[in-house]
Design brief:
5-stranded mixed barrel; two-stranded antiparallel ribbon; 195 residues; globular; 3 helices; Inorganic Pyrophosphatase; alpha+beta
């Protein structure tokens, strides 16, 4: 896991700009940097320039994240952030700021106030309890309703009616969007990196 193609260094590496998005593309395994756990209303985000976590905001309502959440290194979504990842089926809290390998099971297309802000749906790659889950559809109809409800209402007390789930899609669509976000990163962010 996390074989970083980089010589030992006296300075801290920013994993957001060092690791590839895919740990193993054939196995649909991603490198995911964990930003927050389920059951929190605190929203943490990686600072792009340093790789540190920052409290971005405290949620306006009591709706807590129903899944762990993170982002993919070396990707850039249309909203101006790394591509987001929902990690479902977590049995024990993950450590924010840590790196996990997660396996793609789908993607949720999402519009956040007029910006594309899609969410790759994953399970932990090495959790044997999740080996049988290969598609978001296997999580059941209630999971889809709960996830849709969360995303369409989590900002209601601040900006009501601004978020729309535009559907759930399979692994092929998830890989296509990840590849598009890798290309956008290479075109817009990589040229600005120093050292």
């Amino acid at each position: 896991m996390a074989n970083i193609d980089h010589a030992p260094s006296r300075t801290m590496l920013n994993l957001l700009h060092v690791l590839p998005a895919f740990a193993d593309a054939d196995e649909l395994r991603l490198n995911v940097i964990v930003e927050l756990n389920s059951m929190t209303i605190n929203k943490y985000e990686l600072i792009t320039e340093t790789g540190h976590l920052k409290l971005d905001r405290v949620g306006y309502s009591s709706l807590a994240y129903p899944f762990a959440y993170g982002c993919l290194p070396r990707t850039w979504d249309e909203d101006g952030d790394p591509l987001d990842v929902e990690i479902v089926g977590i049995t024990e809290p993950l450590v924010p700021g840590s790196l996990v390998e997660a396996r793609i099971i789908g993607i949720m297309k999402f519009d956040d106030g007029g910006e594309v802000d899609d969410k790759v749906i994953c399970v932990l790659a090495d959790d044997k309890r999740m080996d049988h889950i290969t598609s978001y559809e296997q999580l059941g109809a209630h999971w889809i309703k709960e996830t849709t409800y969360y995303w369409e209402h989590y900002k209601d007390l601040k900006k009501p009616g601004t978020c729309t789930v535009n559907g759930f899609f399979g692994n092929d669509e998830a890989v296509k969007i990840i590849r598009d976000c890798e290309k956008r990163y290479d075109e817009t962010i990589a040229p600005k990196l120093v050292n």
